[in-house]
Amino acid sequence: MAHIENVVLFREVQSWYRLWFRPLLIISLIPVVPAGIIFYLNLPLAGPPAALIAASIMLLVFVTGCLPIWFSSMITEIRSDGVHLKYPPYVFWTKRMPADQIKSVERRTSNPGLRGTAVGWGIHMGPDRGWTYNVRGNQFIRIETTDGAVRHLGTQHPEEFLQAVEAIRKGSFQRRP
Questions:
Q1: How many angstroms separate the Cα of 22 from the Cα of each of 27, 61, 65, 154?
Q2: Degrees, nearest 5: CA angle 32-34-40
Q3: H-helix or E-strand containing 107?
Q4: Which pLDDT belongs to residue 2?
Q5: Is 88 helix (H, G, I), strand (E, B) or coil?
Q6: Which of 75, 116, 118, 155 could form a disulfide with 126 if both were Cys (CB 3.0 to 4.6 A apart)?
Q7: Below-50 pLDDT ranges, the chain
Q8: Could you tell me the strand order of the sheet in which 8-15 lies?
Q9: Helix, coil or strand: residue 44
């Protein structure tokens, strides 16, 4: 049996970073900068210790909450062997759905007013007991596997995504130039 190379048919990297994130980042830095200066220069505090505690908490929230969003992304690849999903820096594993285990695939549009559609960003359980992985927008691909698991994968390129998944299901893929 000949070795088949794992060909990437589709790759999409979606980032959380958006234009509205800049003002949020700047606002969150307002209490962080003085706290950082106090810690770095080891200055004696003239105010109550509660101010230092509050500044420390704000610094912690910024470092663990806002900063990772700046660097986070969702990476989706459709390879000849299946669908691969990464969500760094929050998730350290790669979610894999083998091509031979994909039962059905369909394009959907999320609609908050329509019951049964995956709504929202992030990683969470969707309305039909399937997991949703989404960074932005309201377009996603619903994939059901042979074991009954359902995944909703957000995408900005639903047609290309759908074509690539259909190609690996049928085994009719070609290397992209």
A1: 9, 16, 14, 23
A2: 95
A3: strand 102-109
A4: 45
A5: coil
A6: 118
A7: 1-3, 177
A8: 8-15, 73-79, 82-87, 91-98
A9: coil
Q: What is the largest CA-CA distance in the chain?
A: 76
| Tokens coding 104 | 């059905």
Closest CA to 103 of 146, 140, 142: 146
Contact 169, 177 (CB under 8 A): no
CA distance 5 to 42: 57
The answer to whether the beta carbons of residues 135 and 16 sit under 8 Å apart is yes
* pLDDT single digits (tens) 123-173: 788 767 788 888 888 888 999 999 989 998 999 999 999 999 999 988 766
Domains and CATH numbers, the chain: 17-71 (no CATH), 74-170 (2.30.29.30)
